[in-house]
Amino acid sequence: MSITVVYTIVTLAVIGAAAAVILYFVAQKFKVIEDPRIDDVDEALPGANCGGCGFAGCRAFAEACVKASELGDLNCPVGGNETMSNVASILGLEAVKKDPRVAYIRCNGTCDHRPKTSSFDGATTCAIASSVYSGESGCQFGCLGYGDCFDACDFDAIVMHPETGIPEIIDDKCVACGACVDACPKDLIELRKKMPKNRKVVVSCRNQDKGGVARKACSVACIGCSKCFKECPFDAITMENNLAYIDSDKCKLCRKCVAVCPTGAIIEENFPPRKVKPEEKKETEPVN
Amino acid sequence: MLKTFKIGGVHPPENKLSKDKKIEVLPLPKTVFIPVAQHIGAPATPVVKKGDEVKVGQVIAQSSSFVSTNIHSSVSGKVTKVDFSADSSGYPKQGIFITVEGDEWVEGIDRSEDLVKEISVDGPEIVKKIQEAGIVGLGGATFPTHVKLVPPKGMKAEVLLINGVECEPYLTSDHRLMLEKADEIMVGIQLLMKAMGVDKAVIGIENNKPDAIKLLNEKCADYNGVSVQALKVQYPQGGEKQLINAVTGKEVPSGALPIAVGAVVSNVGTAFAVYEAIQKNKPLFERVVTVTGKGVEKPSNFMVRVGTATSELIEAAGGLPENTGKIISGGPMMGRAIASLDVPVTKGTSGLLLMQEEESKREEIQACIRCSRCTSVCPMGLEPYLLMTLGEKQIFERAENERIMDCIECGSCSYTCPSSRPLLDYIRFGKGKVGAMIRSRKK
User: Signal peptide position in this chain (chain A) (predicted)?
Assistant: First the structure.
């Protein structure tokens, strides 16, 4: 073996050993002490990184959980109560039960209900359309139908209805991350309490115009008549800006408001069909 | 050699169908809707209420801050309501509804056609009167004129540039005004020069209006310090920064006002309004509006009272053609399609373009082929394809660094794009977001 090879091996071995020693001391000196529980919590989270908790991803949420002294303000909407109780047991804190929530679309302005008064041929996103003008119908509050919410949903929980052009929520897939709520420039989507069997009673309208104006633009608009407000036995309904609003935490799904709404702006979903009594037939069929 | 601005620009077909049509006075409408926000800045505050009798030229909404301006009644009659009504964007804006009764003017307005050449007021008084008369830039941007005439501390205006470019295709309102009110415009320029304290004014006119160039050149002999500069036809030469570059060769730095290079730019229409406000005591409540389009029976130039509904103008120009695809308030490049015919004429309405269905349709959007035509035509030296992508991906910090706020929204990029990409749509969207970001940072 030539002497050069020996020299090479020896030199490299010495450099390697020296570097190892330096690296060992540097690693000791600059050691980042991280709470091992962060990894454990991160593991317990769904890993969707959807931002529904209000933090920049699951890791950031895990760090916040470890730092927190109680979990009341922290909630992972994707994992729900099960995940949060796992997190709580890792951290030795008490889990706070939260009602699961689901997205509701608050516009029912389909082509049948809301006649087109103009047409838009610019870039087809809701954000741009709403910055340019009020929309293709006479209602400036309604759904534009270009699907920014559909694009924002990471969980395939929104479909654009091919005929009506209005998005629909698939309740079982919706994790209430709130991405669609932020994406909608008209503020039509709201996260509300998830009711048993995905039942929904909601004022499906955001039109704040006076009754006549609203009705002219859309046949199923809320006209602010306050009938539902007077009818509700649970004080769940409030009236503001010519618009009724049902508080999902107070609503008991009695559907009395649906029956009195003269325009059909309050809609019910996923209920078994009503028994129609012969003397008081539903007057709420939207007039078309 | 003809001058023009140095970077970018396009030359769309001119289509000046109404250039030989004299300005006609449009008959008084039956009702008007006068919005209180017809200018850049704070909306004016209404000072009349339901049931009030108003006269032509009476202040009906008071300026609410320095960057704001008065709104005057354009008709005489009774205020029916102060309410919200949809403007050209479809969103409701506050305004004053007036039912017209007769045509009674406020006392002191000189309604004669006589030319008043003698200037009897001094500079500060001119600025004050301009402010009271509610004069805004009539080129379309509607920036209150009195604000422009008072330069910020440490800056001094050297030259007044008068914008007679009218680079938008189809529009002819400024062209007709220059031909029919040349002397009045000249006196208006003298007034503006006096208000600013400059002794030099240059009127920039594009070479497709040789009659106006010739006429104003002749008039220049009678008025000190005013000259005419003929310019090569190039869109968007009527942009403030482009006009300064074309006439003086100077470049306004990014984010700065024209005053940074010692220039103030005013439209010929504004010069005429200044003349009327000071020499005739007449506030700004009417303007020249071109009604045009290939299908229009009688393309015309009308003198219109502010607040008149669009439908009346269309009626006067021969009615709505059957195959109208879009009605655009302004010119085809920068104008906006309107969603309803009830939209009123405001101080900033320079024209009404009725586009036929086939010419109004947008082509199918295709992928960017990286031809860089948008970059080469951008008169502000921006990269529109990049700004569009940043808008699409919502990367607004980067967009700000790429000078998105310098965009003057001339639309040359969208016009020239061979893939028909909606470049300006996304850039406008990005500008809105970046603007909001900058404002929230200042707070």
Answer: none
For residue A288, give Cα distances in angstroms to A82, A113, A219, A257, B56.
46, 7, 7, 21, 46
Instruction: Tell me which chain B residues have a C-beta less than 8 angstroms from the C-beta of A122.
Output: 362, 422, 425
pLDDT of residue A118: 84
pLDDT attached to residue B114: 87
Residue A132 reports pLDDT greater than 90: no
Q: Is A139 annotated as a binding residue?
A: yes
What is the reported pTM? 0.85
Angle between helices B268-279 and B173-180 (to 10 degrees): 50
Domain B123-279 is found in CATH 3.40.50.11540 = yes
Residue ranges covered by each domain of chain B: 28-109+283-359, 123-279, 373-442
Query: Which fold does the domain A36-91 belong to in CATH?
Result: 3-methyladenine DNA Glycosylase II; Chain A, domain 3 (1.10.15)
ipTM for this model: 0.81
Q: Does A6 touch chain B (CB under 8 A)?
A: no
Minimal CA–CA distance to B329: which of B42, B90, B29? Answer: B90
Of chain A, the percentage scoring pLDDT greater than 90 comes to: 46
3-state secondary structure of B406: helix
Could you read off the pLDDT of B17-66 as tens digits, one per residue? Answer: 998 999 999 999 999 999 999 998 899 999 999 999 999 999 999 988 88
B339 to each of A129, A135, A217, B347, how far by Cα in Å?
Answer: 13, 9, 14, 19
Helices (H), A166-237: 179-183, 211-217, 227-231
Give B95→chain A minimum CA distance, Å: 17
User: Exposure of B358 by Cβ count < 10 A (0-12 exposed, 13-18 middle, 19+ buried)?
Assistant: exposed
CA distance linking residue A185 with residue A127, whole number of Å: 6
The reply to whether B48 touches chain A by the CB within 8 Å rule is no
Q: Any CB–CB contact under 8 A between A128 and chain B?
A: yes
B159: distance to nearest CA of chain A, Å? Answer: 36
Q: What is the average pLDDT across A162-177?
A: 90
Asked if omega into B253 is within 30° of 0 (cis), the reply is no
Of A27-36, A240-249, A279-288, B190-199, the range with the lowest mean pLDDT is A279-288
Exposure string of B194-211, with b = 16+ CB inside 10 Å and e = fewer, is bbbebeebbbbbbebbee
Q: Which amino acid is at B334?
A: M
The b/e string for B157-168 (b: 16+ C-beta within 10 A; e otherwise) is: bebbbbbbbbbb
Question: Does A127 lie at the interface with B, CB-CB under 8 angstroms?
Answer: yes
How far apart (Å, rounded) are the C-alpha atoms in residues A64 and A77? 15
Q: Is pLDDT above 70 for A76?
A: yes
CA distance A140 to chain B (A): 7
List, for residues A22-55, the tens digit of each pLDDT value: 999 999 999 888 888 899 999 999 888 888 888 9
* Closest Cβ–Cβ partner in A123, A128, A134 for B90: A134
Write down the pLDDT at residue A287.
47
- The CATH fold assigned to A101-269 is Alpha-Beta Plaits (3.30.70)
CA-to-CA distance for B180 and B178, rounded, in angstroms? 6
**Is residue A73's pLDDT more than 70?**
yes
Mutate to test the interface with A, among B365, B420, B429, B433 (most CBs of A within 10 A): B429
What is the bridge-based pairing of β-strands B201-206 and B226-231? parallel
Report helix, strand or coil for A67: helix
- List of chain B residues with pLDDT < 70: 1
Q: φ and ψ at B229, to 5 degrees? A: -115, 115
**Residue B426: CB partners within 8 Å, gap ≥ 6?**
A123, A128, B387, B388, B391, B392
Q: Is the pLDDT of residue A274 over 80?
A: no
B378 a known binding residue? Answer: yes
Q: Are B251 and B224 in contact (CB under 8 A)?
A: no
